[in-house]
Amino acid sequence: MEGFCSGLHRSPHKGFSVEFKEHRPYVRGDEVRSIDWKIFGKTDRLYIREHEQETNLRSTILLDTSGSMGYCGVRAGGISKHHYAVRLTACLAYLMLEQQDSVGLVTFDSEVRRYIPPRGRASHLRAILDELGKSRPQVETELAQVFHELAAKIHRRSLVIIISDCFGDVDQLLKALARFRHARHDMIVFQIWDPDELDFPFRQWTQFESLETPAHRRLVDPAHLRQAYLENLKRFRDQLTAGCHRHRIDLVPMTTDRPYAEALASYLAIRRRLK
Predict the structure, then answer these.
(1) How much is the average pLDDT of 156-174?
(2) Would you place residue 3 in the very low, low, confident or very high pLDDT band (cuts 50, 70, 90)?
(3) Model-level pTM?
(4) Lower CB density within 10 Å: C or N end of the chain?
(5) How many domains would you assign to the chain?
(6) Exposure string (b/e) for 209-219, b if CB count within 10 Å is 16 or more?
(7) pLDDT, tens digit, 9 for 90 and up, residues 121-145
(8) Distance in angstroms (rounded) separating the CA atoms of residues 147 and 153
(9) Domain assignment present for 71
(10) What is the largest CA-CA distance in the chain?
(11) Beta-bridge partners for 32
């Protein structure tokens, strides 16, 4: 990734740093000092020694704070999706800053609530943690609209990490994500689930209440809804997975009963592959 100071990550760009990369033929305009004279002595041809530059990673974490992130099932140990996402964000921010990378934070629901630009200073972590501590899940969300707005705001090529349940119209969401990719950002989407949302364990008559529109309530027999719910869920997940794959976006499903270390391991594996 492009950065403005030395860091711990390999760059796709070639330069004149310490680690040798490869030779290439000399062309008019190359600096004479970069010529490998030993190769010239052996082959009577001019070659340039290229090296691999190291640069810092620039990243922005987009945190969904909409109402649906407030859900907390009985198997999550009292951890709502929002609490899980906040802690995951804190872990990632700490890890990046420890690696001398720059990290920023955006909190959003139906609109951007807070934008903290990427910084690489260790003290920057306090600003991120303070904002995370103040965030609360509320109101509805418009993922596609917010992402289109942010894609226009994040100008420099970077790593964009989205932490959300991704609930919304899949086609519109994928179009918005494609805009990030068109701007050549790398992308990781951590999709946060509560286990209840994946297997619909309800058996008795239950009142379901919308976390984004509290006035919407329904008292229903889950047995009559379970099959349709699971079919719709599978369709939603398949469409999102296929779309992310098509746009070369890493989609990492996470459940709130899963250790944070697994998410960090997924992040590090993806970063290792992108180097």
Answers:
(1) 93
(2) very low
(3) 0.78
(4) C
(5) 2
(6) eebbeeeeeee
(7) 888 999 999 999 999 998 888 899 9
(8) 10
(9) yes
(10) 86
(11) none
Dist. CA 168–CA 65, nearest whole Å = 14
Confidence of residue 22 (pLDDT cuts 50, 70, 90): low
Is 4 a member of any domain? no
Q: What contacts 267, CB < 8 A, 6 or more positions away?
A: 92, 95, 161, 188, 252
Residue 12 has pLDDT above 50, yes or no: no
35 and 77 together in one domain: no
Q: Extract the tokens encoding 89.
A: 């964000």
Tell me the CB-side half-sphere exposure of residue 126, using CA atoms within 13 A.
3
Residues comprising the chain, all counted: 275
Mean residue pLDDT across the chain:
84
Q: Which region holds residue 32: left if phi is over 0, alpha if psi is between -120 and 50, else beta? A: alpha
What is the DSSP secondary structure assignment for residue 174, as one 8-state letter? H
Give yes or no for a contact between 5 and 120, defined as CB atoms under 8 angstroms apart: yes
Contact, 230 vs 200, CB < 8 A? yes
Q: Which are the contacts of 45, defined by CB distance < 8 A and separation ≥ 6? A: 25, 39
